[in-house]
C-alpha cells in the first residue's frame, strides 16, 4: 500500500493534490521489533504514522525507571512524542513488534498543513484523540482497581496482552509485573 492509498483509506483524505504531495513526501519503512522511532530529547524531524504493528511511548521517572506512557496499535495512529513539530521529543517511541510505518518530514508536513486546512483539521483531531486517551488512562490509573485497569486494557487493546511484554503492560497500567501476572491468571482461570 502506498502513502496516498493509506491516507485515503485511514484518514478519509480524498483531495488528489494532497494525496500526491503526501505520496511524494512520505517514506514507508518496514521496521523491526525494538526499533526506536523517536528518541526523547531529540527534535522530531519527521512525523511517524503506524501502518502495521505495535509501538509504545516511554520516559524515565526521577529514579530512572522506565514508564510506558502510551501504546499505539491501530493503523493510522501517529507516534506523537511532543505537541510541537520542531520541539524536542518528550518521550521515546519504540516498536514492540515488527511492523510498517509511514514517515513524513516535519517541515514538509507543516508546509502542507499551511496550504491545506483539512490537514490542519486532521492534525487537531489526532491531537484531541491523543489527549482523550491520556485522560482516559489517568482516570483508570488513579480511580480504578488493578483488576478494573486490566479489564479495561483487554477491551481497549484487544489481542495485545499476548503480543506485548507483561512489564510494559504493567507499567502502562501503573502496577508491577507480579500484580499483572496474578490478574492474568485470575482472568484465565475465571476466578
TrEMBL record:
<feature type="domain" description="Cyclic nucleotide-binding">
    <location>
        <begin position="29"/>
        <end position="116"/>
    </location>
</feature>
<dbReference type="InterPro" id="IPR000595">
    <property type="entry name" value="cNMP-bd_dom"/>
</dbReference>
<dbReference type="InterPro" id="IPR014710">
    <property type="entry name" value="RmlC-like_jellyroll"/>
</dbReference>
<dbReference type="InterPro" id="IPR018490">
    <property type="entry name" value="cNMP-bd_dom_sf"/>
</dbReference>
<protein>
    <submittedName>
        <fullName>Crp/Fnr family transcriptional regulator</fullName>
    </submittedName>
</protein>
<dbReference type="Pfam" id="PF00027">
    <property type="entry name" value="cNMP_binding"/>
</dbReference>
